[in-house]
Amino acid sequence: MKKLTLVFIILMATLTTCAAGKNSDIKKGVTRVACIGNSITYGIGVKDPVRDSYPTQLQAMLGEKYLVGRFGRSGATLLRKGHRPYMTQPEFRDMMAFHPDIAVIHLGINDTDPSAWPCYRDDFITDYLALIDSVRHSNPKCRIIMALLSPISDRHHRYDSGTRQWFYEIQDHIRKVADLANAQLIDFYTPLHHRPDLFPDRLHPSREGYGIIAHTVYEGITGDFGGLKLPEYWTSGMVLPYGKPIALRGTADAGIQVTVRIGSQVLRDTTGLDGKWEVNIDKLEKGGTYTLQVSSRKLKGGSKEQITLTDIVAGVVWLASGQSNMSFELKHDADFRKAQSDIEAKGENPDIRILNLRERWLTNNNTWSREALDSVNHLQYYKDAKWEYLSKENAPDLSAVAYYFARMLQDSLQCPVGIICNAIGGSGIESWIDRESLEKEFPSILRNWTQNDFIQSWVRNRAMKNIGWSTIKQEFERDSTGELTGAYLQRHPYQPCYLYEASIAKLKDVPVDGIIWYQGESNAHNFTTHGKLWNLMTKSWRKAWNNRNMRFIYAQLSSLNRPQWTWFRDHQRKLDYHYAHMVVTSDVGDSLDVHPRQKRPVGERMALRALYNEYKHYRILETGPIIRSAVKMSSDTTMLVMRNNRGLKTSDGKEPRVFEIAGDDEIFHPARAYIEDNSIYLVCPEVKDARKVRYAWQPYTRANVVNEAGLPMSTFLLTKVMTRKAYDKSNIWE
């Protein structure tokens, strides 16, 4: 602290001299860095902007060979016709007198004002170029570093009225200016966007947030990105998908040549000013074992770094995610004893490898410690994890669904299987979606999330219990360090976006074949909202993995005495399209327990869908009978049209049950059902003109229709019954 204070005193004294134009007093060999911007450069939002602003923190990072000048003007616009043009402010004149060797520019936030961007947007590029020209006039050799804007919170009062859209438009304009001006571009947005807790007033970072900005500028100036790094979950013993190109991305210091060797492949890339490198590994041979060697060396000599990963195998890789029925451990499964016997008989199994991500704190009905809450805010919710062989030691704690899924895949495909387990009990689907998607498509779910009805009340109440809501004041106040604080700044795994930011953002660097998903219990209160969120999540993850056709195999909710589950199951049935495939679980539910113990059928049914849809095993029946339509055959008889109905039968040998039919009055009556030629016929004398048909329309059901593979038919509601004539003319099978 004393050292920082001394640096600050020297800095301020020197800046005063510079502002007076006495640049000869500056020590020769010192690089002058001008931080140009608005209130975020000035340091608004912290108790002592002079001490805690990002330029001051940057000075401490750079050391005595640099002199950092803070030239931020609160409310300044880049636009010269804006409400406070930066180029007319005294800070601009002081910056020009400073004659910077490096200029770091962060302007544009205030240009999202309705009085600026809608009126003068066409001037933004020319005005930004004019500012850069002015800086270069002060010092023709000045290095220009432009920053993409730091985030504006969805809580901002003008967010929906225009700020959100204009913000992204300005970001695009900044990229264009950087290209036109041959300026270096750095990013204040990405390292802060996933940390809304660092923006107490919606716009200005806390001291920690300013530190992140300072570190970003430090990296941009020095090219020091901490040396050679691979993605967190690229480790020895991992499984990579076979037969498809694989992107490997990492970081190293700027201007470094990176060489990647795997098998006979030698791949190279050179880092740019952003420290990023990327190579594309060609298709790996199924079942092959590889060593991956990544090395780096400065282009003009210098020390060499090297990372070596061993025992990498090429097979298939799936991510198992969702909530508690996916995280449900094998040791609690109804068939655990048999599974344990099989695992012990094989011993350590290198053909099934697991990366099991586990939470540090369970979302049980208790209050977490202050230390836990701080770690959660820093996205440190997961324990450290590494790739491991399946063994008798780690299998009991593995997801039961994931275990049975992996076992069937390995047996059928005869290649290594990698399973990444990442499921959090009680989590809503909204917590698994990236922030930008929700900000653009569903911002209302982000606001006041512990109170809004888009999120299930149980989810909200449990989160408030964990964070100790009653002990945290909800209004703005200053804490002991002078920082603004408030209860809504405390994060929780159930908060929208949180689990994406804490885990998926890292896992996306590991290539996967697809996703198995068991979730919905925490969204069953509102299937309309879930439908929107489901589309956002699948789109979000496909974008993250850069695979527009990435498969999602998901479990329909099982049977349970909760009235809304009937409708939610039918909603899930309709999501089965565009590389999303459902498995039915209603026959293995429990009327009283939200965690039914029969997980083997669920995992194996998911494997069947993967084998059929992803790996082209078309000879198998991948799912149970799928209802297509109902046809009125006579006044009291209706035929059900299905596919996957080969060997249609009942699971208990009795007549098909729990079918109902309604007429125009929409009052349903039980229908007698019988099977003939792999079709189901319904007879209901009480209804002479059938309009609707439903099957197993109860929260907990004993439905019994299956096909020859023993796979059950989904519960359903059909709201239209076709005439025989219309059916004969239809193209229902196309």
Q: Quick one: biggest sheet?
A: 11 strands, mixed
Computed structural class: alpha/beta
Strand content: 15-25%
The name CATH uses for the topology of the largest domain is: Rossmann fold
Helix content: 25-40%
CATH domain class name of the largest domain: Alpha Beta
Q: Report the total helices.
A: 21
- Please count the beta strands (DSSP E, at least 2 residues each): 30
Radius of gyration: 30 Å
Q: Do you know the CATH architecture of the largest domain? A: 3-Layer(aba) Sandwich
Unreliable spans are 1-22, 473-487
Count of the separate structural domains: 3
Span of the ends, CA to CA: 73 Å
Mean pLDDT metric:
93
CATH level-four homologous superfamily name of the largest domain? SGNH hydrolase
Give the overall shape: globular
